[in-house]
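User: Predict the full complex structure for these chains.
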Amino acid sequence: MEDVRELWARYLDGGQLDAAEEKRVLEVLEQGGAEADALVQDARLDGMLRGWHRAQEDGAEFAQMIWDRVHAERDSERFIEKVKARVETEGQRKGSGRASRRRKLVGRWNWVATAAAGVAVLLVGWFAWTALKTPSRDNRDAQVEPVVTQVELARLTEGADVQVRRNGQDLTLTTNAPLYKDDVLVVPAKSGAKLTYTGEETTLRFAAGSEVRLGQDKNAKRIELRAGECEASFAHQPTGAPAVLITPHARVTVVGTVFTLHVGHASTRVEMKSGRVDVSSDGRTVPVSAGQFVEAVPGQVLIAKAIGAPSTRDCVAWPFSAKDPWNISLGSDARYEAIKQPGYDPRGASLDTVWGMALYQAKESDPQRKVRGKSGERGATFHLPDEALAVSKKYMVVGIVEPNGRTIHELGESRLLNDGSIETDGLFTSDLRRDAFPPKGKGLRIFGGSSLGGLIRKGELAGGIPHALALAVPRRAINIVPPSGGWSVWPAAAERPTYEREFAREGNLYIGSLVAIPPNVDLATLGVGTSGPGYEVARALQDYGAYLISSYHDGDGFTIYGERSVEPETSPEVDAQIGKLLRELKIVSNNGPATPGGGGTPRRPQAPPFGDENEPLPVK
Amino acid sequence: MEDEVKLIEQARAGSTDAFTEIVRMHQARVRAYLGRYTRDSDVVDDLAQEVFLTAFKNLPTYRGESELSYWLLGIARNKALLHLRGKVRRHAHESNSIQTILAQREQETVEDEHVRVEQHGREVAALQECLKKLPEPSAKMLREYYFQERSAVEIARTAGRQEGAVRMALLRVRQILRDCIEKRLAAGGV
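Assistant: Here is the predicted structure of the two-chain assembly.
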C-alpha cells in the first residue's frame, strides 16, 4: 500500500493514478487540514519550479515569441494601413516637439515597407501607436481585455495557390506563408503542397486535392485529414503529447515516424516507412510498425500487415509454426511486472553469435553419418557436411538442416569416430515447420526446445526481427523452482539442471520467462536511434520479447543469441546499444498457453504460412 | 533600479531591445508566479506571453508608482485568475478530480490575495535564494528534473535508483525548499 505522499509524488510527476489511488488522494484533499495543505503547497512549489525552469532559456527567444504573437495578432494588411495612418496623423498632430521621433518612425516604416518584414513593421507600428496614445491611468492591475493572439504552427514550404480558410475568411497562400491553428487547407487539384512545422523537422506532404485542418491541443498536434493523401515525416514529438492524425475512418497516434496516410471514400490506409504509430478505428487500436500497413475500413477488423511481404516463408530462414511461441507477438492484454533480481548488468550485454548456433544446410552429396549421443541416446543417420563437424566444440550447438529443407538436427560437441560415425554430447531433431517447444523437451539448452528458436538471423538487424529473441542470464538471477512446479515455466520444458545449486530459489525470473519492453516505452528515448541493430533489437523486445532459454555459470552477462552468419553484423557498439535496453525490461506475467504473448490484439501480424503445408512430415 | 527606469523609458520610446531586456529580467518571477497556480507548463508559457504582451501594450500607462516586477505580477495575477475561473467553470459539471480541487483552491487563494502581490514577489525571490542554498546532490536532482526536463524515470535510470525513490526524493527536496522559503519570509529577508 503506497503512502499518500508517494501517490502524490507520482501524480505530480505526471504518473497515472488508478481510481482507487485517486480516491485516496481526493479524500485527503477534501478533508482539508495540515496534510491537505501540505499537498497543495507542494503542488504550488512544483508548479513554481516548473514555471521557473523555462526562464533559464534565453529571454530573447521568449521575447521573440511575444513579437510573433504581436505579428500574428495584427496579421492583416488593413491593420498595417491603419497603424501607418495613425502614426502619420497622430505624429503631425503632436507637433514639432515630436518631430524627431516621427521622422524616425516614418523612416522605419519606409524601411519596413521596402523590406516587407512583417514582424518589424508591426512592432514599430505598434510601438508608435501605443507610445502616442495619451496615458489614461496607471494600469497597475492591468484590467485590459484579453488579447486575441495566434501562434505560427507551420509554414507552407512547397506549393502555390493553396486555399486556406482562416477565421471565416478564404485566403490564397503562397510559398513560405505562415500557418496557424485551425487553418483549413485545400490543396489545388493539380498540384501538391508541403508544410513544415515551425521549430522542428516535422513535414507533411499533401497530394493534390487534399483537405486538412491544422489543429493543436496545447503542444500536441491534431491534424485532421478530411480527404486526399498525406506523407508525413514526424520528428520526435514531446513526451506525453503525441501527434494525432484524424481521418473520417481512423485515428493515427504518432510518436516519431515516417508514414503515408491515404484517405479514400470508404477507408484510410496507413503505410509505415519507419517508427511506429497506433491506428484506431471502430474502437480497436493496433500498432503499425515499419514495413507494415493497415487499412481502416469501418465495420472491418483492423489488422496490420506487412507491406509487400511474401505470402509464404521459408522455414529455414524463419522457422517454426505461426502458432509457436517464438512467432507470436505480444498482445494488448499483456501484463508487465518488474524483474525482482535481474542479476545482469548493461555492461555485460551482448549479441552472441558464437554460442548461438552454427547452421549448415546439408546437401545430398555430403557424407551420410550415423550420429549417436555419448550417453546412448537414440541416434540418427543424415547427411552431415564435414565443415560442420570441424567447428564443433563444447557448449556450441551446430545445426544441420537436411536436404529436405525442413528437418534440423542439432548437435552438441561432436567427434568423428574411427568407424566414420559421430559421437555427440547431445542430439536433438525437430521439424522447422512445427512448434519449437515440444511438451517434453530434450533440446540442447536448458529450456528444452530447438536451439534455433529465437536466434537473430542474417539481415534481421537491418530489416527487422519477426520473432521473439533467445536470452541467457547468470544462474544466480534465475529462480529454478517456479511456484507452478517443475524447473521452468511455459513454454519451456526444462529438466532438473545439472548445476541446480548455482541457481537462485527466489525472484520472478524463471527458465521460460518472457521478458519484454512494455508498450508505453518510447523506443526513440532509449538512445538506440530509430533504425539499425540496437533499434531493431529494441523493437523485437517490445513487439515479441525474449525467452529465457539458457544460463551462465556466473558473471553479470545478458546475452541475446544470434545465428553464426550474423557475426559480421555484430560489434561492441551493438552490444552497448543492447545494454541501454535492459533497464526497460519487464516480465510478461500472463504469458501462458491460453494467452501466449499475454493475449489480446497482437502487436505484429501472424507469421505467413509455409509454401506447401501439405507436404508429408519427414522427421525420422 | 536606475537601469530599469532607463529600460522602461527606452521601451516606451520603441526600443525592442529594451523590452527584450525587461522580459529577460522578469520572466523567471512571472513564470514562477504563474506556475504556482497552474502546473501545466504550456499554460504557464501562454499566460507568461500574455502577461508580457499586456505589459507591452500598457507600458505607456505605467507610472512607476510600484516596482515594475510587482506591476507585472499584478498582470500575472489577473491572467491566472481568468485562467482558473475558466478552468473551474469548465469542470463544474464533472465529478471532483485532483486537478479540479487544486484549481478551486487556487482560485480561492488568488481571489483572496487581491493586494498581496508583493508577498508573492518576495516568495519567488526567496525561492531563488533557497535554490542557491540547496546541497549539491539535491540541487543537481532539481536541475535535472525541472530545468533539464529529465523525467524521474530517466534520472532513476542514470543514478541506478528506482523511479519511485527519485519521486520521493524530489518531494523531500521540495519540502526543504518550502521550509527555507517560509523561514526567509518569516525573517523578513529576501
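The CA atoms of residues 324 and 435 of chain A lie 5 Å apart.
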